[in-house]
Amino acid sequence: MRSRRRYCCNRCWAVRARIRVLALAASAVALGCGDGDDAPVRVTIPTGATMSIAADSLGKAGVIGSPKLFRTYARIRSSDRGIKAGTYLIKPDASWESVLRALRS
User: Fold this and answer.
1) Model pTM greater than 0.85?
2) pLDDT in tens, 58-80
3) How far apart are CA 103 and CA 13, in angstroms?
């Protein structure tokens, strides 16, 4: 019995494996966070800031744990563009989805 090859090459397999790992990690982090009773933290996003700069600001404020993973999550959700500059009050245990919503509204 011949086995069927699932991927055209090892590179395709590696790319798909990385996507799955990042999606699982982002899901685990997003599910582990909830809107709790902690006091909101003030985060300032400067004018013209990219998602990388915004994620670093959120990480320094303690809103997110991993800026790199948050940037990847935003890119997967197609929410890494169109963030608005300003000062935000965000709870430290807010879900990543609510943080993205705040940055885009």
Assistant:
1) no
2) 999 999 989 999 999 988 888 88
3) 34
